[in-house]
Structure formats: structure tokens, C-alpha cells
Amino acid sequence: MELRQLEYFVAVAEEANFTRAAERVHVAQPAVSAQIRHLERELGQELFDRSRRAVRLTAVGAAVLPHARAALAAVTAARTAVDELGALVRGSVVVGTVTAHDFAMPDLLAQFHAAHPLVDITLTTDESDSLLDGLHSGRLDVAIVSVGAELPAGLAAEVVTDQRIVAAVAGDHPWRRRHSVALRDLPDHPIIALPSGAGIRHQFDRACRESGVAVRVAFEASTPNALAELAERGLGVAVLPESVAVTRPALHPLPITPELRGRLVFAWRVQGPMSPAAKVLIEMARRRLRVGGPA
């Protein structure tokens, strides 16, 4: 029994006509008929009723058809697996991250490289808006980005961190004895924030708009640690992740009301093609995040 015989058999069964089946498999009609006869002789039973204008399956043919389809599907799957393995061996993956995050990306990439040393890895750093655009456009395969409560459409993700966004002031600031601060209190003070396009800045700006609050961003810096250093020198109120503020003894962190939260996620697109290398990297990252967290 040969695969081409099964292919011709399925084609005739689905087309109910030898001529149309021959056109479908791109061979001459006599060749299809001859191979079907060979298959019938091998099985010892006729597979088609040829007594009418339309070719119909016999009871034996109907019983054989699902097995023939399954055999052809298995061959296709095997070929796909081989193709994907070849692409994985010499593929590429493009990773994007925000500047500051708590995920051990070097460890993940080292693990991936050890398993697939011939895959080219590109790592880039950018603001969350640009990273999200890169995911949607296909320029990036995966990215660590800052998002709000809702994940943007067309993406899937695993959470890296989910924490409060706080206002942090120097130890000699008039707010040093307060336990929280409202958004409406911020317009009277210079704000130290990440640049526009950064995820936390996006959440902060949106909250201000929704509350009708107009603040003055006096200083911008590219990392939360840089924001903290500026606030420590008394230059204003830093808007930054709580995890950064609490590690600075010279800062007094204040939860913001209404509460603001910053979520960092390891994200990838769910629509469009994805390389085998990207699929493997995503699964590695998901296992790390589910088992041991970001570290």
C-alpha cells in the first residue's frame, strides 16, 4: 500500500469522479484508475461502485476512507514537524523590553541559546507604546511591556509584575508625614515622571485626564531609579513603581488615590504567523513565570 494510492483514493472519494480527481492530484486519469485498481487488489475488495454515472464508495470503501485520511494527515504532520525543526535550528527571534523590569531576560536567553545555539537572537529596548506597535506589526516576536488593567487586543501575555504606582518624595518634603496622596493634590507640585510612551507614564496621564487634573511634569528620566534619584534631591514628586520607592531609605512613598497600578507582562501576538523559535522561547518564558516568578 503506497501513500499515492491513498491520496488518489481520497481524491476520487471526495470528487466522486475519476477525471476530476486526476485533475486535483495533477496526474493523468488512467494513472489514477490504475493505482486504485492496485489498491483494490491488495485489499481484496472493491472500493468504488462504478456502475453509475457518479462514482460512489462501497461499504468497504467507506470503512477505509477515514483511515486513509488519517494516514495522509499523519504524513503531513510529520513533514510540518521536520520543516519546523529545520526553521528552529537556523531561525531567528526578536525580543523587545522596556528599560526597567524585574524579569531575568539574560537567564532566559542563555537557556534558549544553550538549547538552540544556531538561532539568531535580537534584543532591543524601547518604550511600551513602541514595543506594542512592534508586536502588532510583527517587527517583534515577544516583548516585556507595561500595560493597564486590560491587555491590548490581539495579544496574549503572562504577568511579570503587578504593583501599585506611587508618588515618592524626599524625606524633608511637606508630605513626609502623609500616608497617601490624591491626584487632585499633584498640580501644585513639580512632577518627576518617565517619558511619554512609557507604560507607567501612560497610566498616570490617563488617570489625570479622567480626573480632570492638569499636572506639570518638570523632569523626565528614562528609568524608575533615575526618577527616584531626582526625587531624593528634592526636585519634585516622582511617579514610579512602589517596588523602587520602598528600596530607597531617603524617599517617602505615598499610595495614590484613586489607586494606580502598573503591570509588566511578557507578551506576544496571537494573530498572524509565528516562527518556531518564537514559540519555543514563549513556552520557556511561561514556564519560568509560572514556576518561579520573574527572578
Keywords:
two-stranded antiparallel sheet, alpha/beta, 295 residues, 10 helices, ten-stranded mixed β-sheet, single chain
Q: How large is the radius of gyration?
A: 31 Å
Strand content: 15-25%
Q: How far is it from the N-terminal to the C-terminal residue, by CA?
A: 55 Å
Which consecutive residue ranges, at least 5 long each, have pLDDT under 50? Answer: none
Can you give the mean pLDDT? 89
- Sketch the topology as an H/E string, one letter per element: HHHEEHEHEHEEEEHEHEHEEH
Judged by helices, strands and strand pairing, the structural class is: alpha/beta
Instruction: Count all strands and give the number.
Output: 12
Total count of helical runs of at least 4 residues: 10
InterPro entries: HTH-type_LysR_regulators, LysR_HTH_N, LysR_subst-bd, WH-like_DNA-bd_sf, WH_DNA-bd_sf
Keywords: DNA-binding, Transcription, Transcription regulation
Family: Belongs to the LysR transcriptional regulatory family.
GO molecular function, one term: DNA-binding transcription factor activity
